[in-house]
């Protein structure tokens, strides 16, 4: 099935070939458009490769400081509660420097949607170790493979958020068509939760960084299916309405 | 409306509400916590939003988002907390957004202490964050002036689309004085073409550093701040017309200097005072008019004579500049008078 490109993606994206960010951008654009809220949406965009998004994404956006996108989104949403406000962040951004801002937006159950692209490294700065880097994974700052004895375990933030009072938590992937369609459903659920004032919604998306993983795009997708998913299970972890039922 | 007795910090908070401020995010630190406490009950009453953020970094980031939405917004902090605000202030300045930042200064570096001091001059006036920007900085010397500068500060911030800093200190923040506040004002957040509100049927907006789209960025930024320097200098002068020794002092210490000038004048000494109200832009115009001056004394509550550098620049190093510094306690007028005598007798060591 060939689908029309959403108007939100007004020119081709600038990510590396095979990068997962492009797919996620498009999914966010499609969902906002299909829900009819693209004209009312405002995005707080992280630094890192996420920062390429505003160059091709025809929706009101603000460039947040590294790690602070959730807090910036909160500032917007609290002032303009009837707009659809989201942050778009990588793993280094949301879980390293911005861990506190990420967790506290969830702790306060802020009525925003966080789109969290987990590619297991700091893509933009050249593939350094991130909180989500897998055990044993080589990066430019874990050249011997990530040693959990000194760096701790890969961070599963959804597990940490599960006991909080939040509206929606899900983890998808862009590694094959089926997963892409599921991820789109998660993104839609997340934005719908916000629209219904249910509170904080968070979608983590496992995504390839072929450039820094040193793999061609197809190998990178296989790597997600064969390895990454073992550490980061897919699915909906807090479903809408579940906590309030 | 008549005058009411108010703490400096509370006057900041109430003045902000009356100026149409609808969003505050901040984190407790002495000696500014009354600002949070006051706004936590007052803002919801006035249809606004108060958030106690998890840190100063988060607080200023929320302010960044709120300011980008076109709302009048502020945060406040002190010392170590002010250091944490710098990342956000640099972003807000780079994106040309208006907002109000309050630093109720405490003394010293690192953790410092809650005693009165003016040691954040360099950080506030010269920029604590990275890059080519300036914050417009006002230094009130009374509770009444604090309230007035908060109100005009929001207007100036919007006029130049630039952060404005109110540089208060522990004593002005904590002291009670009579203050007259203006009536409530409404601010329309939708009136700005640049504010984030969703693209609607129009063009989408980008809030990001103007560097990314401004042609001749260097010239643009240089001329923006030149304009601020030309138009926004504020100061008060006291007996400077024939003065041979001119004290330069701001905020709480300027009040003691006024007394010292009167003491000296009684004894026939030609002493005057320049009180900068705007620290950026520094009121160099006040110095250009002086004809008889032989020397300047920078009186400030800092160990390193921070403002003395700007005094030296303002007089183009044509006169010697002395300093009376040190914080934690406010000087007596007699301390200042003693320094004046030291300078007259040639026993003082100049800093420039
Ligand atoms: C305060 C600060 N520290 C460091 C950087 C440099 N920096 C830019 S992007 C980035 C990492 C981004 O990684 P991630 O969030 O995983 O996003 P990705 O690029 O992988 O999509 C870093 C460290 C910065 N911009 N600001
Ligand atoms: S560096 Fe990685 S995350 Fe960044 S655009 Fe390239 S593939 Fe994507």
From TrEMBL, chain A:
<dbReference type="InterPro" id="IPR029061">
    <property type="entry name" value="THDP-binding"/>
</dbReference>
<keyword id="KW-0560">Oxidoreductase</keyword>
<protein>
    <submittedName>
        <fullName>2-oxoglutarate oxidoreductase</fullName>
    </submittedName>
</protein>
<dbReference type="InterPro" id="IPR051457">
    <property type="entry name" value="2-oxoacid:Fd_oxidoreductase"/>
</dbReference>
<dbReference type="GO" id="GO:0016625">
    <property type="term" value="F:oxidoreductase activity, acting on the aldehyde or oxo group of donors, iron-sulfur protein as acceptor"/>
</dbReference>
<feature type="domain" description="Thiamine pyrophosphate enzyme TPP-binding">
    <location>
        <begin position="47"/>
        <end position="205"/>
    </location>
</feature>
<dbReference type="GO" id="GO:0030976">
    <property type="term" value="F:thiamine pyrophosphate binding"/>
</dbReference>
<dbReference type="InterPro" id="IPR011766">
    <property type="entry name" value="TPP_enzyme_TPP-bd"/>
</dbReference>
<dbReference type="Pfam" id="PF02775">
    <property type="entry name" value="TPP_enzyme_C"/>
</dbReference>
<dbReference type="GO" id="GO:0045333">
    <property type="term" value="P:cellular respiration"/>
</dbReference>
Automatic annotation (TrEMBL), chain B:
<dbReference type="GO" id="GO:0043807">
    <property type="term" value="F:3-methyl-2-oxobutanoate dehydrogenase (ferredoxin) activity"/>
</dbReference>
<dbReference type="InterPro" id="IPR002880">
    <property type="entry name" value="Pyrv_Fd/Flavodoxin_OxRdtase_N"/>
</dbReference>
<dbReference type="InterPro" id="IPR029061">
    <property type="entry name" value="THDP-binding"/>
</dbReference>
<dbReference type="InterPro" id="IPR052368">
    <property type="entry name" value="2-oxoacid_oxidoreductase"/>
</dbReference>
<keyword id="KW-0560">Oxidoreductase</keyword>
<dbReference type="InterPro" id="IPR033412">
    <property type="entry name" value="PFOR_II"/>
</dbReference>
<feature type="domain" description="Pyruvate flavodoxin/ferredoxin oxidoreductase pyrimidine binding">
    <location>
        <begin position="14"/>
        <end position="185"/>
    </location>
</feature>
<feature type="domain" description="Pyruvate:ferredoxin oxidoreductase core">
    <location>
        <begin position="243"/>
        <end position="327"/>
    </location>
</feature>
<protein>
    <submittedName>
        <fullName>3-methyl-2-oxobutanoate dehydrogenase subunit VorB</fullName>
        <ecNumber>1.2.7.7</ecNumber>
    </submittedName>
</protein>
<dbReference type="Pfam" id="PF01855">
    <property type="entry name" value="POR_N"/>
</dbReference>
<dbReference type="InterPro" id="IPR009014">
    <property type="entry name" value="Transketo_C/PFOR_II"/>
</dbReference>
<dbReference type="Pfam" id="PF17147">
    <property type="entry name" value="PFOR_II"/>
</dbReference>
